[in-house]
Amino acid sequence: MNDSIPDEPAYEPAAADSPSPTGPLTPADPDLPLRVTEEDLLPPEDVAIDIRNLSHRFRNHLAVDRVTFQVTPRSLHGFVGPNGAGKTTVLKLICTLLQPQIGAVRVHGKDVGRETKAVRRQIGFMPDHFSMYRQMTVTEYLDFFAAAYGLSLADRRRVIGDVLALTDMDGRRDSLISGLSRGMQQRVGLARVLVNDPDLLLLDEPASGLDPRARIELMEILRALRQMGKTIFISSHILSELAELCDSVTIIDRGQIRYSGAMRELLEHDSDTAAFRLTVPGEQPGLEERLLGLDEVSAVHRIEDSDEYRIECAVGSETENRLLAAVLRLEIPIEGFQKDLRHLNEAFMDLTEQGVR
Amino acid sequence: MLRGTLALMIRGLRFDCRRWQMHALRFLLVAIFLFILFISWIEYVVAIGTAPGLGFFSYITYTNFVFITLGGMSFFTSSITEEKEEQTLGLLKMAGVNPLGILLGKLGPRLANALLLLAIQFPFVQLAVTLGGVHLRQIQAVYITLAGYIMIMAGLGVLASVVARRTRGAAMIVSAAVMLPLLTQMVLAIFGLSGATAPLLANAREAIAWISIWAVVERLGEVMSLGFDESPLGVQLYCHLGGAAAMFITSWLIFERCTRQPHTAAESGLISRKVRSVFRMRTLGLSILITLPLLVIVFVAYPYARSAFTGFGVQRVPTYEAVVAVTLALAVGLPLVTAIVAALRRKAVGRDIGECWSGSRSLIWKDLHFVSGGAVGLMYRIVLYSLITGLIAFLLGYFGGDWEWSVLGGWMLGVGLVAGTFELASNVGRGLRTELQWQTLSTLALLPQSIRSIVWSKLLSGLAALAPAAVMVLFGLLTLLEPMTEGIADLVNRTNGSFVNLLELLYLPMMITLVLLEIAVFVELTAFFALTIRWGYVVLAAVCTYFMNSVGGLAWSMFAMTLSVGSMGGGNSRLFATLMVLVPWIVATGISVALVIALYHAIESRIRHLAGQS
Fold it and tell me: SS3 for B24?
């Protein structure tokens, strides 16, 4: 019964023009704003998740279509997309629940198809549903998983104490899981994925159904985990929180990657003009005209119901510094000056298509 | 109300129509009948049976009876509990469907399906008339009787489903309701025969016979007897229809009361957390060690105590009474001793159920404690098997004349094997079903253990929970050891190089191999069906195993028949004997082994598929 997991390859790493498992793949859209090219990719050993040319088909439905992206170690990487975009399929392919049909998935350099057992020891996957033994107490539940990972009794006691402290569930260690609130169950789920001290956490919609307080607290825990050196790959629909939390993001739609890269790069306006936001204390009569009079400024809009002004100017070298110097020369009181970033929602809407698959 | 009821009924019927399993079941049923019909026709052609039509019809009738009894325990019992388990009963109530509407809407499609399964047989069964030995009136009477039986099982099932929190509990209530009248009748019969006959007892026995669902057995015997020429509508039908209506009305009346408090998963478990935190495995083990010497004392001291109280001579005290005393002492004493030991140990060890076993054994630990009931579940089983042993000993001692340990051992072996097999299948099936219900299969599949290891852990945890049944079987084997050794020694002496005698000697191990393989197929079928259908997986596996057995048995007898006809022409008797024993065994073993391997891979692949889906 202690037989090892078969190590035979479940697929052949494919070339870019490989056919799909059961039929021809649709040609990749050349206009897709895919930021990742083969030249950009790092060696697989240097990345936490390395996905190359991954395709997966369920009968007649091509769920994932030639997906390529990487996640750097110790980063918090967001994974967003509309319903049915293929997020959960990609997550399941990374966490070995599905075997890649075409393409390659590597976790810390290990191939998920060939080195399944080793990959499983390095990851912690939290599905989008409450996957729990509700008749167990919190301690029994965590003890079972820690024991299943082969931890010794002394290690289990220590690890359970640590993960309960991290998730702030120490006071509920003897509570039945079924008696916990949704937010607490989510914490227990997070504690469960941490018992084997994985390097990579894969979280599928961890904040769905949680109240605002529970969501904020969960995000705090995720920040703490990143500081502890974990790589976190998080799929979520709550874009505002992802924008704040994540270093990098991948947007997927209809099985294809629309964007993969740094979060800041995505949120910056991708055009010939740069935009900045100037905050001043209270009403400043004539300020809009004065700002427009500056050489660097091409347009100024006052943000409705606020003391903020959106200033647009041509992109050039040192744009930000030159504009700030020009504004300071106007000798107006300034409370804030920052680059005006798009909201992730806007980027998401721009990059994804209408309708639900 | 009508709209809600209709909506529920239509939903249920549509759901069943979309499920391939229901169509497969009907197809399987028709295939069984056609096969049996074919065998009966062969018997008719070669003129072996005196009334092949009656033989065919009897087989169909009693098969139906067994299936309705087994199916009734799972098919109707989940009608309301499945809504409770999925916590959707409140939604139905909020949608304005009243209790009567819910009951009709949930029970209606199931009843329609069950009656439909019976109805599709009717055209085929009428062919029995052409084979001879049975009249159309008998067929009509039997099917009306069975329809009445379905109705009372439906009434009982829905009542249990309203009362119980989970399907398992409802099935246990129905099982008890089926068995209790039989046991009561037995006990009353014992008192009646012992000279304590009183009009009250006789009337009680009569009343139980009428309201009992076992009345259907008497009615079927009556209808199948030669010269039956009465109305197809017997008293049994009216009693069962009345009983079914009464139970349905009771379900309606108590519905609100029983479903007012939505239950949680924790409450609905087999064993509550408070109980399982007190009764631990080590506590139970210690209690058993304390109880065993007490049982020996009871066995030795009983004749003296009985003699002291009744004035009987010690030698005249029947052995079976001492056995019954021991089983009762175990059934009552073990829980008491365990409670005392638990109370004494509680301060020392706290309230946890103990640390999980490490590595792949952790999966066994989980299922043993949270699916099979852990220490408390084991104690329940010890008490149950002890009571069953006591009952067997009582019936054997009271009716059987001279007391023989080997007869008790034979019964214990048989009952232990059958109960243990069903328990093992049920534990393994429930272990897998629970993972599906709790959506934990994907989490489990991600542990650094293979899917194969998960499958084995389910089997091993089921086996660990079988300890009481295993003790029963072991005790049976021990009492049978002497006659078996004598029989084997006799056969060895008689062998003297004779090939036929050698085959006779091999017959027992060959049969044991087949029985073990059949148990393996049954358990694997249950596991596979648990991953495929929502309820009734044990029953469906039992039906399939029964069908395979029937086909195998019939094929075997046909083969033997052909060989017998061949040997009449004067052939090599040694060759015929060899062929008659070895060929069917090799074929049956080969098929069983192939099935065991195929099912094992099917289960593995199904788990992998479901883990990827969830």
Answer: helix
- Regarding whether B227 and B83 lie in a shared domain, the answer is yes
Asked if B460 is an interface residue toward chain A (Cβ–Cβ < 8 A), one would say: yes
For A115, the closest chain B residue by CA position comes to B448
| pLDDT 10s digits, A25-81 | 333 444 444 444 556 667 766 799 999 999 999 888 899 999 999 999 999 999 998
**Pick from A97, A129, A143: CB nearest B611:** A97
Q: Among partner residues B353, B450, B612, which is closest to A5 by beta-carbon distance?
A: B450
Same domain, B91 and B153: yes
Residue A302 lies in a domain: yes
What's the DSSP call for residue B198? -
Tell me the one-letter amino acid at B242. Answer: G
- 8 Å CB contact of A178 and B358: no
Amino acid identity of residue B245, one-letter, is A
* ipTM score of complex: 0.75
In this structure, the answer to whether residues B517 and B605 fall within a common structural domain is yes
DSSP string, B309-371: HH---GGGS-HHHHHHHHHHHHHHHHHHHHHHHHHHHHHHH-SS--PPPPTTHHHHHHHHHHT
Q: Are B58 and B142 in contact (CB under 8 A)?
A: no
pTM of structure: 0.77
The encoded tokens of residue A235 equal 């799929």
Q: Which of B262, B258, B275, B391 is nearest to B338 (CA)?
A: B275
B47 forms beta bridges with: none
Which among A172, A231, A236 is positioned nearest to A210, based on CA atoms?
Answer: A236
Domain membership of residue B606 as a residue range: 496-614
* Neighboring chain B residues of A202 at a CB cutoff of 8 Å: none
Q: Select from A132, A147, A179 the Cβ nearest to the Cβ of B356.
A: A147
Residues B246 and B282 in one domain: no
